[in-house]
Amino acid sequence: MQIPLSPLSRGTVAALSIAGTVSLAGCYVVPIHPPHPAPVAVPVPAPPAPISFTARLYPSNDAAVAHGMVMAVVTNDLNGRGHFSTQIGGEAFTGEATREAGSSRAGTASGSGNRGGFIQCRYTMNTPTLGTGHCRMSSGATFSMHVGG
């Protein structure tokens, strides 16, 4: 059996129905836990590898003539420092090469020998691997230095 509705009741039902439809028309669903973006891998560049090159020491006084031309190895670690090594007259010298403060070109290389001697060099680089300078040993021998090439 159907219950007849009064016209007021029908209007009320219609108004409620329309109000419900209108009120739901502006709704949307919001997730309780929003999704997190996937982590993004950012590549970290590898530090530059050190550069090794040779230096040739040419005698520049009588004390150095007995040794002749001498080869040295310089390893530049690309942060203003490096390692220096050579062998002169049967003595092995090892030490550091550093750039002068405030200069990207001028520097000093020093090494101590396994027999108690030492060598000190001053140099100027024209490029990261080419330069010139001079060296002096504790024995008084002096050399002109050509780096790289």
How would you concisely characterize the structure shown here?
Strand 6 and strand 7 form a beta hairpin.
Features:
Lipocalin; single chain
Number of E strands:
8
Can you tell me the CATH topology of the domain at 51-147?
Lipocalin
Biggest sheet strand order reads 1-2-3-4-5-6-7-8
Poorly predicted regions are: none
Mean pLDDT: 83
- In DSSP terms, counting alpha (H) and pi (I) runs of 4 or more, how many helices? 2
Largest sheet: 8 strands, antiparallel, barrel
* Shape field: rod-shaped
Order of helices and strands: HEHEEEEEEE
- The Cα radius of gyration reads 41 Å
User: Structural class given helices, strands, pairing?
Assistant: alpha+beta
CATH architecture of the domain at 51-147: Beta Barrel
Task: Report helical residue fraction.
Answer: 10-25%
CATH class of the domain at 51-147: Mainly Beta
Instruction: Tell me the β content.
Output: 35-45%
Relevant CATH superfamily of the domain at 51-147: Quinohemoprotein amine dehydrogenase alpha subunit, domain 2
- Please give the alpha-carbon distance between the first and last residues: 109 Å
